[in-house]
Specification:
The longest helix has 27 residues, at 2-28. α6 crosses α7 (187-202), α9 (241-253) packs parallel to α10 and α12 (313-335) packs across α13. By secondary structure, the protein is α/β, with parallel strands linked by helices. It has helices at residues 2-28, 49-68, 88-101, 113-116, 120-126, 158-172, 187-202, 221-230, 241-253, 269-275, 296-305, 313-335, 342-349; strands spanning 35-42, 76-83, 106-108, 129-132, 142-143, 146-147, 151-153, 177-183, 206-213, 234-236, 259-262, 283-286, 353-356, 359-362, 375-381, 384-391. The strands form four sheets. The protein has a seven-stranded mixed sheet, sandwiched between helices. It has a five-stranded parallel sheet with strand order 2-1-3-4-7, sandwiched between helices. A two-stranded antiparallel sheet has the order 5-6. The chain folds into two domains: 36-156 and 292-365, Response regulator (Rossmann fold); 159-286 and 376-391, Response regulator (Rossmann fold, 3-Layer(aba) Sandwich), CATH 3.40.50. 44% of the residues lie in helices and 20% in strands. It starts with a helix and ends in a 5-residue tail after the last strand.
Length: 396
């Protein structure tokens, strides 16, 4: 009887300890052991891989740099990337693996709103923060009047980007009429289209045509023919380089002479290769001026690490996501005597302020977006992106 009682007491004690550990881990999320684990999700295959590969390469380069300098709080960083293949389902699966199997402390990426929005519930359950790079739809961090506690970003949002495009088009370029061709199946495209129209019309401009297509379409001649009949001053194309190139080429074939304008989904070497001759004089809302003297050192570092590899916008955004995460990790390590948990990192990200390649990253506690980032307006001349000016818009 005594042995049975002792065994029962030991069992109860073990169960209590397990429950306590589980509760502690649950409250703190994933706690770093000998290494600080940084996850990443993005497209390494498919049409968007041109952005994802560059972004992943950048973060690996920066992780190696930190490790060579001794790590953070005496701990080395471990970089764990996963390919989303450009689909929401794979994005959710990847985050599940990072949170539950790899036990990461923070996640960087993705570079798409369609991939960033569906991962929120997984992040919240695991108490792990994600810092999106080029996911600009406002629902990534804020929805239904509430901030998503574990979703952050270093890029400006679609309402702002759309407002900048429309304000520059009307106030600076002098365009009074506009047409919009958008991807009806893509949240990024629809967000930009919505806010471009709203702002352009509020300033006194007229949107004379609105046409749409679905992801995967390659023939836009029917929509472009309808747009041509309205003779707009500018045509807003809020989608990505592949479809933009096809659109511009087909517009040229049917004799459209209007200027094109787009957002951050345009900027890539592939845009120049596929559609450069048909996009001369186009305007793009971007996150960074590629010719800015402040970014030349970073460009040289990337070129040295990856000779011959193209450097896309995502390198700059990946850099800023990493330095933001690094600042939060360092803050947690200092305040908690070297103990680093994913929950503490998420809390530290609120209000964090760092100098990034694309400007000052100051994360708002209210909506988890960077505060007051200006956009860079660039144009296409020959086979080059040329800086026009920094430009801000009023969303009020």
């Amino acid at each position: 009887m005594k042995k049975v009682l002792l065994l029962l007491l030991a069992t109860i004690l073990c169960l209590s300890l397990v429950a306590a550990c589980a509760k502690d881990g649950g409250e703190e999320g994933n706690v770093a052991g000998s290494k600080i684990k940084i996850g990443w999700i993005g497209s390494l295959t498919g049409d968007q891989s041109v952005f994802g590969i560059c972004e992943s390469d950048t973060i690996k380069m920066l992780v190696d740099e930190v490790n060579a300098a001794g790590g953070i709080a005496g701990k080395q960083l471990e970089f764990i990337p996963y390919d989303t293949k450009g689909t929401p389902e794979e994005a959710v699966n990847a985050v599940n693996r990072l949170v539950t199997s790899d036990k990461v402390q923070v996640i960087l990426g993705p570079n798409s709103s369609g991939l960033a929005i569906p991962i929120a519930s997984v992040l919240e359950k695991g108490k792990v923060a994600d810092i999106a790079t080029v996911a600009t739809n406002e629902k990534v961090t804020f929805d239904a009047g509430k901030v998503k506690p574990y979703n952050f970003r270093v890029c400006f949002i679609d309402p702002y980007q759309g407002a900048v495009a429309a304000s520059f088009a009307y106030q600076e370029a002098g365009f009074k009429t506009a047409a919009i061709l958008s991807d009806i199946s893509d949240e990024y495209s629809q967000g930009l289209a919505e806010y471009f129209k709203k702002t352009f019309e509020s300033l006194g401009g007229q949107v004379v045509a609105e046409e749409a297509f679905k992801t995967g379409d390659v023939d836009f001649r029917a929509q472009l023919t309808k747009i041509k009949e309205k003779a707009p001053d500018v045509i807003f194309l809020p989608y990505f380089y592949k479809e933009v190139s096809l659109t511009a080429k087909q517009a040229d074939e049917i004799g459209i002479k209007a200027i094109f304008m787009g957002g951050d989904g345009w900027t890539s070497d592939q845009l120049m290769e596929m559609g450069g001759p048909y996009l001369q004089g186009s305007f793009i809302v971007n996150h960074v001026d590629f010719d800015d003297p402040d970014v030349q050192g970073f460009k040289a570092q990337f070129a040295a690490a990856y000779p011959g590899k193209p450097m896309q916008l995502n390198a700059y955004m990946g850099h800023d996501a990493f330095v933001t995460a690094k600042a939060a990790i360092e803050k947690v390590a200092e305040e908690n005597k070297g103990k680093i948990s994913s929950e503490a990192i998420a809390k530290a990200l609120e209000g964090i302020k760092v100098e990034g390649i694309t400007g000052t990253i100051h994360i708002s506690p209210d909506d988890h977006n960077p505060i007051g980032k200006e956009a860079a307006i660039i144009t296409i001349e020959g086979d080059q992106y040329k800086f026009v000016k920094k430009f801000a818009a009023d969303l009020g």
